[in-house]
Fold each of these.
Amino acid sequence: MASRRRTLLKVIILGDSGVGKTSLMNQYVNKKFSPQYKATIGADFLTKEVQSDDRLFTLQIWDTAGQERFQSLGVAFYRGADCCVLVYDVNVQKSFDNLNNWREEFLIQASPSDPENFPFVVLGNKVDVDGGNSRVVSEKKARAWCASKGNIPYFETSAKDGINVEEAFEVIAKNALKNEEEEIYLPDTIDVGNTSQPRASGCDC
């Protein structure tokens, strides 16, 4: 009975509002896409059972609000993450420029034990828009940024058409699993309130 252990892997999706974070998550978990846009308030998550090397684990994917007024709500959800997915819209330069801010903010708030080697994956979403004629961020530029941050895996995706979504999340799951195996402890459940000691605002402890 003890031989079969189910592992919970926590994945956080970050990026500007409107880049398609919720749509990517829904396409991966439910194989559905909705053209209706509704901003995420706070954070929400979906789970998916995944098998790797005869081992069953649950991917818990957290979709966080991209709007600044809700970002403070996301801090507690960053803790205990096993992988962070950074998403931008290839048709919006600002969403790409903000990737660094999202990455830095995550590392500050999540406080991973080994920030230099914490697994990130970058998704350039909405490659389907206008047949690719509207894009302003080239694949070359995005890959160069990923290389400069320690060779972060990069995928160009379309949540609408399902392009590269499955492939991207396979890599996300593998990176999350690898990170989880390096952790010293394995909590049975994610308890947001108890994953770490509370820190005072501005405390660098």
Amino acid sequence: MADYLRPTPWDKRNFQMDTFEVMSLEEEALAQTENIEGHFTIKVDPFKSSKILLDHGFYYVDTLIEPVCEEGKLTVFEKDGTDISLEYDRERILEIAKESFEHGRFHRDFNIPDEQADLRYMNWVSDLMDKNQIYALFYEGSLIGFYGFEKENVLLLGMKKEYRSKGLAKPLTSMGCRKQWEDLDLQQLKTSISAANAPSLNLFYSLGFRLRSAKDVYHKINRSSMGV
């Protein structure tokens, strides 16, 4: 029998339980979640019927919009005083990360305490720094945010609260996109944004990203000896 459950150890360390991504919507795949303790994630086409998922104890948590920017379509905004760099104070980046992830799908999962959801994103930022996949965002010499990436994917954005809504998101994010594009010699950039996060959707649309696809995200927990 095929194994449809892909372990996600990067999530296991945060949630005090085994965690898995379910790789298929087939009955055989969902049946494999029945007798295993842990947290399960599946991402599906929004036009697929959710009945089979609900029958197996999954619940809806989010819709991820997946915009793409093709080569030559990126709009770069300029603003005096803005800069980005691969050199930064690690602890200051982590401090910014603490206040940056209110729209994550694990924050929307009512079975996950907020402090564990916060830890999940903090650890992700830390992992990206270990791999030199964080650009620090500066304004007038001050470190105010970060931009996380991997290959052609824009993964994470964070900015200190006092610098939001001040016209800095477009120039700093577009500079990060341009540097990622040039450093990695890419043909396109992709990102994934919660449908609830309207400011991020508007931001990336203004930079030249256009919607290509979307995924509905469902979770499931088998609890018998869970730590949440």
Amino acid sequence: MAGNIFGKMAADTLGLSDIGKIIAPQDFNKVDGDDYIMHEDGEKIYFVIKSKTDEYVFTNLGLIHVDGESAVSKKRVVKRHEFYSENVHSVTLETAGTVDLDVEIKFSFGNNSFSIDVDKKQIEQLKDLYKALFEIGKIQHKNNKSYENGINSLNMANEAVSKSRIEGNVALTLEDITKFNFSWMNNMKEQFSNKDFGQVFEKYINN
């Protein structure tokens, strides 16, 4: 136990640890991730965590991860994860123990998992992010269920049509059915795939 404590203290002293800091809103324009915001599409930053190597920029449209190789390298890889195409899930928050210097938030965007250590003095702010991400995941889960129900209803209707006798021009009828299915699926996708979760962030993030 003592070895772990002293090892962690030494890591912080030597700058080997990578505990993130939550950036104040007035400094959002100073982080690297701000350069990749889609202002033209109404994208807005709501939360930023910055460590020695990485930046995690949460916007109304998703997450911009500015991935650094090391604290001494200037090389960065910018990765974008959007709510429209990736579901948020497995959101957890691990609070600090007596000797811990950090708290940890974990979550996933689709198949991509994240684990971010944050200064434990900023736990109250991190709780806001936890609540926002959890709520977004809940909304997406509900939307997915509604979309699945819609597709199942469409499949049932198609099955009923396939068993009925088609009168007139069969080719034209099949073309109409195909167009209807395509339009139905697109409308369902648009209706139950939120692109913008700004309202959720505004509800939970106290900037």
